[in-house]
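Comment thread on ticket #2218

A.B. wrote:
> Attaching the input chain for the structure job we discussed in standup.
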Amino acid sequence: MTKAGFASLMLVLIVASPVAQTNESRLRSADAVRATMPADVARQLAAFGTEFDGEIAAQTAKIYASQPRVYQPSEIKVAKNLAYGPHERQQVDIHTATRRSERPMPVVVVFHGGGLVGGSRAATANVADYFASLGYVGVNGGYRLAPDAKWPEGARDVGAAVTWLKTHAAEYGGDPEQIFVMGLSTGAYHVATYVFMPQVLLPGTARPAGALLLSGPYSFDFKAPSKGELAYFGEDRSRWPDMVIPGHVTRGDIPVLFTTAEWDNARYLWPQAAVYKELIDKHGARPRYRQSLGHNHSSQLLSVGTPDTSVSRELVDFIERTVKR
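C.D. wrote:
> Ran it. Output below, let me know if you need it in another format.
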């Protein structure tokens, strides 16, 4: 090969090499993992930073209120206010597709957040709608709030709802052996207590097929508890250490997916890591974990059912790979 030919070959190799990619092309490749979140939404969520309160939650909900949906509301029918207990908040709404599958489908029941003293099913109706649009049975679950209901009544309400669904899911095309329970924030804490601490549940409580836990506060600040934490955990601080999840996991054989948000505050990160480690070290479990890139605390579930599939595809993948056909 001539010197000129060798020089030409080297030029081709350099241009084709990944090392020779421009900064712009490398950034485009990196952005692919965030591609489904609209750029304007990503910018607004990032601007909030890692702090999160009621005002930011309201602003986040407003952002997602204008986002398009991947299903038509006319595709979904909802049986509302079905009681699983005597209290007005012990109710579920069951969302199903207008055209049901001929075979029983997985059931996905979601529980809202709200700092132990607030929140409602209205915040998670989109999640039940979305799963119904996929052919699942989507269930939007309520639970009693503090101070009327104190620890561990939130977890017992989750268990009571699953137990009720075990009996009634088939009426709506659901598989009573494939009930998945999901929670965000406080809802995730109640679900985690139900899943990992069966010792606090009432006898006869049904177990789920799997759990999806999004940014749960599995522990709390003993030195500066919030009003909601005081209302739920009570004034006897000597009992508080027994009410957190880390250090008290006694059941580790239920498949579980954890998520945290990229913009979550650290108070949601270290307890999740502690529970994750405990499941591995003490129970030999293999829990799944996903960081929701670009998202803040509440946008994870608000994005479900929109063209931003960064969270919903992970939820669906976990369910489909866990469900027993």
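A.B. wrote:
> Thanks. Noting for the ticket: Strands lie at 76-83, 91-97, 105-111, 137-141, 174-184, 210-214, 256-261, 288-292.
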